[in-house]
Design a protein that fits this description.
The complex is a heterodimer of chains A (613) and B (79).
Chain A lengths: L4 E6 L5 H9 L3 E5 L6 E8 L5 E6 L11 H11 L10 E7 L3 H12 L5 E6 L1 H6 L2 E3 L1 H8 L3 E4 L7 H11 L13 H15 E4 L5 H9 L4 H19 L1 H22 L4 H18 L2 H17 L1 H14 L8 H6 L4 H6 L7 H10 L9 H11 L4 E3 L2 E2 H25 L12 E3 L7 H20 L1 H14 L9 H4 L1 H13 L6 H7 L8 H9 L7 H15 L2 H13 L4 H11 L3 H27 L4
Helix pairs in contact in A: 3-7, 5-7, 9-12, 10-11, 10-12, 11-20, 12-19, 16-18, 17-25, 17-26, 18-26, 19-20, 22-23, 23-24, 26-28, 27-28
Chain B lengths: L11 E6 L6 H9 L7 E7 L8 E5 L2 E5 L1 H4 L2 E5 L1
Antiparallel strand pairs in B: 1-2, 1-5, 2-3, 3-4
The chains are: A alpha/beta (613), B alpha+beta (79).
Chain lengths: 613, 79
């Protein structure tokens, strides 16, 4: 039988992903396993003979008795029970050399299946750094299968491993070894590890020292917040030139299309529809890439687990775990990377709850909306020393979002996503320097996921939006928007939103704001015939016009609406991808709309009752 | 004494675990990580908020985080 497929199996933190990246390079495909939200990583491995085979990186697992969806997938794929997935012909058991005893427990279980197996004794360099010397030959003798020492990031042992994989299939299939109990495997693991460890110095391991700093009762949180400050500073300041350049490029492209094509509806579709719509989503790419650079670096270095440890108690208060902290924090920049970062949450219910509340974190796209309304309606006066009323209102909106997220998380956790959490039992992995290549591959994958969304679902929605705004065509003298389907939808919507103080212009602005929340601003500017081309002048002019035509309660209700801002289609699209179906994005949409309506209404009615209007 | 009361950096042996206080997945996860009868552990770190929850345990060459509710189900004797 020719060899066509192999898979990496092993405990979490065995360095499987780095080994996978080193073996397959950038030639890999990331998708979900059908029906579950577990990532399927597949690539091509070139064998010494020149032929290539499919290599999959199976989710990290502690044993064949699954305790999480990840482990369930690993178990089913190994046993050939996963529908549509052929069982891999060769299993490459990845062991962390410095955690041999622990990792041998699962390894024995895999080897006992009697399938062609190879062991990759990975991260031997880190073990040596910790003063641990292991004899691969002794390990090979004890396990009865080939053992190859590897250092994925330095590409050590990769050819030998590929050769061993090629040779594994040729060995006669072994008989099943008898199935053992966990205790038996643990005793055997201890004995094998003892025999294979040549020497073990008692010098303090580096990661214990680092933990003393990073998990220190007050130094730890201080470092965490300093680090987060740097991350956010970088997301907002480093991204600006790139976002401006992207915006410039889109503008240039628009100009070129205008110059090259005669004036027509088709040209308008390309420029005003596709380029400006998709463009308003794509400009978030630099922010997302920068944010993911830090998230991936924190994950690869082992720091992410420490951040989760520090913040766990706080998150436990609303029924989540420390692992939700970073995804939720990322959502302050944009909910898309936040929702994508929930992959590191192992418990499916925790993960779903985190995804559902992520849009409540005030993302950067809401700032332009807040800025225009606050500048126009909130008097710029000092309240307490240097603290101004405008700043206070802005802070209040952020806090409102956070409180709403906490309450929603609590409610969801005791209703829709109810269920015993697998709590917060996790290994704190060893610290290691992230490898640039692994970071680049990870960044490329995240950027690609985002761009593919922009190219497919967001593209489609943009075209539909444009069609809604431009058809049917207006009769001469009639306003195009009033005549359009969107205009009619806005008329209908206006009736619905009238009780919460919204007028038709607001209803209309909410439709194109589906592309990105801040588009509401330019849409309002169109409605109020603001001519200024420069952004700042536009905001100023728009503020003046709004002040003339909106009451204060309406403005406040509009702000309250944007705390929930349910209409971001990119968020809906990424939620669909991450939850593998339409059920949860639809649920998210409904609950966000309900809350937005309720709180905008309450704000409006209270403001009117207080006589503010 | 239960594990949540064990002082920092004190080596102890797990003498009993009340598995009924834990969800099945939690029990399996603990066992998979080697936190089971007879294991030698020590508390390496505690959380920063009131109650000093969660707890980071040293088990062999690993550090494992768990919550106080889990630790309360685990009986230990200091060595």
């Amino acid at each position: 039988m020719t060899l066509r497929s192999a898979a990496l199996v092993g405990n979490p933190n065995a360095g499987k992903s780095a080994l996978f990246n080193a073996l397959t390079g950038a030639r890999q495909k990331i998708a979900n396993y059908p029906g579950v939200t577990v990532e399927r990583k597949a690539g091509r491995l070139t064998l010494p003979g020149g032929e290539t085979i499919a290599l999959t990186d199976l989710p990290g697992s502690y044993g064949l008795d699954a305790t999480s969806p990840d482990e369930e997938v690993t178990r089913k794929v190994i046993l050939g029970e996963f529908p549509g997935e052929a069982a891999p012909q060769v299993l490459v058991v990845v062991l962390d050399a410095s955690n041999l005893e622990q990792h041998l427990v699962f390894a024995q279980e895999v080897i006992a299946l009697g399938r062609p197996c190879v062991v990759a004794l990975n991260m031997v360099d880190l073990a040596e750094r910790d003063g641990l010397v292991i004899d691969p030959a002794a390990l090979e003798a004890a396990l009865g299968i080939p053992v190859i020492s590897t250092v994925a990031v330095r590409r050590r042992g990769l050819t030998e491993l590929a050769a061993a994989i090629a040779a594994a299939e040729e060995r006669a299939a072994e008989h099943h070894r008898p199935r053992t109990t966990l205790t038996e495997r643990r005793v055997t693991a201890h004995a094998i590890a003892e025999a294979a460890i040549v020497s073990e110095s008692s010098r303090h391991r580096l990661h214990a020292k680092l933990d003393r700093v990073f998990l220190h009762p007050w130094l730890g949180p201080l470092i965490l917040f300093a680090m987060l400050f740097v991350v956010f500073q970088a997301v907002f300041s480093w991204a600006t030139p790139f976002a401006d350049a992207l915006e410039g490029a889109i503008g240039w492209l628009t100009e070129r299309v205008r110059a090259a094509m005669p004036e027509s509806l088709a040209r308008d579709l390309i420029t005003d529809g596709i380029l400006s719509g998709v463009g308003s989503v794509v400009v978030f790419l630099p922010q997302i890439v920068i944010l993911f650079f830090f998230i991936l670096a924190m994950e690869a270095s082992g720091y992410m687990a420490r951040a989760a440890f520090l913040m766990d108690r706080m998150m436990a208060g609303v029924g989540l775990s420390g692992r939700s902290f970073i995804p939720l924090l990322s959502s302050f920049a944009c909910a898309i990377p936040g929702i994508m970062a929930t992959r590191s949450i192992t418990d499916p219910k925790d993960r779903l709850t985190t995804i559902l509340v992520a849009p409540l974190m005030t993302c950067s796209a809401r700032l332009p909306v807040y800025a225009v309304i606050i500048a126009a309606f909130i008097p710029n006066r000092a309240v307490l020393g240097p603290v101004g009323l405008q700043g206070l209102v802005l802070l209040g909106l952020y806090v409102f979002g956070i409180v709403a997220a906490m309450v929603v998380a609590l409610v969801l956790r005791s209703s829709v996503t109810k269920g015993a959490a697998s709590g917060f039992i996790m290994e704190l992995p060893k610290y290691q320097l992230p490898h640039p290549k692994d970071l680049l591959i990870g960044l490329w994958q995240r950027a690609w996921i985002f761009l593919r969304r922009a190219g497919t679902i967001i593209f489609m929605v943009t075209v539909v939006l444009w069609l809604l705004l431009n058809f049917p065509r207006a009769a001469p003298g009639e306003d195009q928007i009033d005549a359009s389907v969107a205009g009619h939808i806005a008329n209908g919507l206006a009736v619905v939103v009238e009780p919460i103080g919204f007028n038709r212009d607001i209803a209309l602005s909410l439709i194109p704001a589906m592309a990105a929340r801040e588009v509401a601003v330019s849409s309002l500017a169109t409605s109020y015939a603001v001519g200024a081309s420069d952004e700042e002048a536009q905001a100023q002019q728009l503020g003046d016009r709004l002040k003339a035509s909106w009451s204060l309660p309406t403005a406040l209700a509009f702000l309250a609406w944007f705390v929930f801002a349910p209409q971001c289609m990119s968020t809906i699209a990424v939620t669909r991808r991450e939850t593998n179906g339409w059920k949860w994005p639809v649920f998210m949409l409904i609950y966000l709309f309900a809350l937005a309506y309720l709180f905008a209404g309450m704000t409006y009615w209270t403001a009117v009752w207080l006589g503010l209007g | 004494m239960t594990l949540d009361l064990l002082p920092l950096e004190t080596r102890a042996r797990i003498t009993a675990v009340d598995w009924s206080r834990l969800v099945v997945e939690e029990a399996q996860r603990l066992q998979a990580l080697g936190i089971d009868l007879g294991a030698i552990i020590s508390v390496a770190h505690r959380g920063i908020f009131s109650g000093r929850d969660p707890i980071a345990l040293s088990v062999g060459r690993m550090t494992v985080a768990l919550r106080r509710v889990h630790a309360q189900a685990i009986e230990v004797e200091a060595l």
